[in-house]
Amino acid sequence: MNAQMTFPGTLLALAFATSMGSLLWWMMHVPPPIPAVVARVRRTVGAVRRILVPIEDSEYARRAIEVACRLGEQQKAEVILVHVIEVPMTLPLDAPLPDSEARARKVLEEAKQIVSFHGLPGHARVERARQAGPGIVQAVEHEGASMIVVGLKSGTAPGDLMGRTSRWLLSRAPCEVLLDKVS
């Protein structure tokens, strides 16, 4: 009877010693620490929760949506799609522009399909402004976006790569600006 009682006890003691040994081995093999610079960069990129993408009917704008979606996938960032209707100075900002409004709706509907394909939250809006740059910044401030992703045209001369809007955003945007040039 003692031999039967000691065998289960021995097995239990062996299992306990093995699990404690594994735990001690795990505790003694801590992964190397992340350098402070790397940790800070990871934290700032991980803090991007709302990404604004200015949209127009172009391949480089659609590519910017894709880039924004991939940037925001891990943290499930919201992608805000904005089409700015540039209203001429000769008209009031709220003047009806049916052709521009119809084009904006069409472009934004196509853009929303890219965002929904990635399963990210997002919405689209039309902004009216005299120039695209101030209109985009107005949308950033209204939406509380932490990053703007802008697509750039390819095939332009190196000095002309950035248009007036991209230059304006780089100098005046209240958040990070990421420029994506399609090759």
Strand content: 15-25%
Helical stretch count? 6
Distance between the amino and carboxyl termini: 81 Å
* pLDDT < 50 runs, ≥5 residues: none
Number of strands: 5
Question: Major beta sheet, specifics?
Answer: 5 strands, parallel
Cα Rg: 27 Å
What does this structure look like?
With 183 residues, this protein is α/β, with parallel strands linked by helices. It folds into two domains: 1-30; 48-181, Rossmann fold (3-Layer(aba) Sandwich). It contains six helices and five strands. The protein has helices at residues 2-28, 36-46, 59-72, 98-117, 132-143, 164-172; strands at residues 50-54, 78-86, 122-129, 147-152, 176-181. Strands 3-2-1-4-5 form a five-stranded parallel beta sheet, sandwiched between helices. Helix 5 (132-143) crosses helix 6. The radius of gyration is 27 Å and the shape is elongated. The mean pLDDT is 88.
List the main descriptive attributes of the protein structure presented here.
single chain; alpha/beta; Rossmann fold; five-stranded parallel sheet; 5 strands
